Amino acid sequence: MKAPATPAAARPDAASGPGSGSGRLWVGLLPWLWMLSFFVLPFALIVNVSLSTPELAVPPYVSPFAGESGAPAFHPDPSAYRRLGDELLARGAAGAERQYLAAFANSLLLASLATLCCLLIGYPFAYHIARARASARNTLLMLVMLPFWTSFLLRVYAWMGLLDSSEVGLINQLLLALGVVAEPLPLLYNGGAVLVGMVYSYLPFMVLPLYANLVKLDLRLLEAARDLGARPSIAFLRVTLPLSRRGIVAGSMLVFIPAVGEFVIPDLLGGGGVLTIGRRIWDDFGPNQDWPMAAAVAVLMVLMLIAPIMLLHRHGRAREDGP
Amino acid sequence: MGAGAQAGAEVLGPAGEAAYLRIEHVGKRFGDVWAVRDVSLTIAEREIFALLGSSGCGKSTLLRMIAGLETPSTGRIVLDGEDLARVPAHRRPTNMMFQSYALFPHLTVAGNVAFGLHQLRPRLARAEIDARVDAMLDLVQMKAYAGRAPQELSGGQQQRVALARSLAREPKLLLLDEPLAALDKKIRRQTQFELVGLIRRVGVTCILVTHDQEEAMTMASRIGIMSEGALVQVGTPDDIYAHPNCCFSAGFIGETNLFEGRIRDGRLVGADFPQPIVLALACGDLPAEGSAAWLSLRPECVRVHPLAAADEAAAASGCENRAPAEVAEIAYLGGHSIYHLRLPGGRSMIASVPSAHWGDAPPPARGARVQVCWAAPDGVLLSR
Amino acid sequence: MNGLRGWGGRAWLLGVYAFLYVPILCLVVFSFTAGEITTQFDGFSLRWYAALAHDAELHRAVLLSLRIGALAASAAVVLGAAAAVVLVRFGAYFGSRFFAGMMTAPMVMPEVVVGLSLVLLFTHPALPLLSGRGVLAIWVAHATLCAGDVAVLVASRLREMDRALEEAALDLGCPPLKVFFVITVPVIAPALIAGWLLAFTLSMDDFVLAAMLSDPGSTTLPVLVFARLHHGLKPEINALATVIVVVVSVAVLAANRLLLSAQRRGALRLR
Questions:
Q1: What domains does chain A contain, in order, with CATH numbers?
Q2: Record: contact A146-C249, CB cut-off 8 A
Q3: Which is the most buried residue in A157, C19, C108, C160, by most CB within 10 A?
């Protein structure tokens, strides 16, 4: 991430549209200044802190700009990145827990699996909503959105009750009552539970862009394909699927990107065993008070997410038809 | 026979009338492109003037500059003695009817018509606004719909509301941007006459922009033809039809046969006509020897004769220009037929022949050999 | 054949809807238990609703969340609408692509990163004016996070809007600034309202930013709920969930009804 332009430098640009007047200037200034101050500048601070030296203080780091005298100086301390690199490349002391490597691997794996599951569940789902009667579509779509509007935390909490590993867990209760198992299954506090939670929480993000894309699909194209002798399966593979590519990419990225950084779901459903990037940042930032490390992990994660974000940006129009 | 009359900017106004609107050397540049270039035009009070041209010719830009929605890059616009250069759109005594009608969706029909009246300063009394809205809706026969939302109206009704809205402020100049383009073809013709009647009754000066020559010719007393940002010819519809001053206006108003060639010995040669074309011009009016020129010949000026009787018929009607031709296509249109004829060189010509022309003899069929001819004075020589 | 596929499709829809709603239904059912365990039904009772009604800590958190939600949504609407005008109406200028990216990035950026970055800003020793963590910080965070969503909603509405409407108002004598308020705002009002509701919901629902930016005096509802999920589950949370589900369902249904009828009438009638 490059250092942000100073607000003063960006100001004239903001208003140099055609026919700029003072009204336009002010309209442009507000969002420009706000986003520079509260999104770009903070981001630069993350980069700055990631190059800082951790210290027992408030705040717990020494900025690379803090010179001994008042003279402006820049002394970046790459130690956070060095430590992170050692961890990720497993060069630490033998028997180290390799927590960071586990966190990155877990996050990427869980996010990929969640994206795949959402796509496999969401595509036929969106397809059938899009093919439903026009009068029913609105209701069906609203039913997808409704859980999204209720509390995210409480929806994750619902799965804590369902997956509980003791004999009072709802699924275990059912399985025991049906005699399928003799002992309650350890359903909660593992990767599988986190995956279920992610799929459950992010499914609407997949369904909406897919639906927006599929509902616009010209049915005559399919009829034409059938008319030209394509079997239904071929027509789907050669016409429907390629034409819904934008929706697939947008939906997948909308699931994948937040899933990589997710904190709440792994924390509540994963227990101590499932380390993720989100939890790593949270712990380094919170209990461990290792802000430079938290910042370095955040920078690395954002770098990893640049490609998916660009992909989403290019296919992002689908989002506009969303909620 | 005003062939090649080079209309200068100064003579464009209607003779003998005081100019109400004066457009002087107005141009508009968007980036590197001149959308309007050096247009000069005067319009008299109460005149209905049409700017005619194909899409993208700059006619709408010119209209928008008059309304103040675009700023001219060059030139100035003077309305009723007032230079409009420093007057912003919302203070101009002009009102425009937009192509999309632009009726405010969140206001009722009455609210739309009242909108402009609410902006007047000093403020009008509420009762007076209501009375004027009533009168306007009455004028366009939309009183029964005063409380409706614009979206509930048909296209023709929306057009009438838009007209009432733009007339409510009693503008000095009414601007109509493609007023009927959004309507079905069927009701368009009827609406043309209604609209003209209404504008005449109100007595407002009006400029309308259209790409439809029929609309322009029905509605306007004078027409300005625009092409590539320039005003190429201004005149009454019949004047332009009979005396086009360039190939563009000849082709744009009505159909025509254009022959391209060079002037040699007082004739047009090199045209894809079998012989040099005889021109009916005094030597002094002719373009320079050897220069490029075009001859425009209206289809109804072309005579078609069966080959057998050709020579005496041609001689009798005094046609200097003749050639054999083959009938390629015939479109029978009742009172007359359009003949598509193929000349020996391969080029085609169209002729409009009255059905009565053939008398008792059978008209030539497709593939028949005929002779085409026309009298030299019927052709209009154009130098551009 | 078509019928078979129809049945398959229907079964799939039903299955996914079950997946979406069974967990919520479970929450609701066990909110009426008389026992202490959140997954065992020990007779019907409303005791957990009574507990909810007397939970002062929870009430404070709800009130704070409502307040932050309303303020953040209002700020996000102002920011987002201004940003949408810049995105749609300013054309291309130096930095316009950067601006578009900057507006939409918070929507896809993982919340922990946004949260961390804002903590660094608000605790930065050189910026004492920002007064550290607390309600102000949460408000700023939520407004920033939601501005992009509002901007996207409003921008798509602005793009659909006929520019001639504004020109017509200008032509009819309305001064430019007034045109924005009497023509543009009413026409994009549905997007502004939808944007406000979306921002409000996101703010009410946000845990990560609020948790990272809260100080002891600014415990929002999600922060409180998260703490309770970690320290002993009680069916009181189910009762809370039930209340939220009911309120949200009623609100969404009402909003949907309103929006549909407004669409049918063409637009909101003002004046």
A1: 61-67+74-319 (1.10.3720.10)
A2: yes
A3: A157
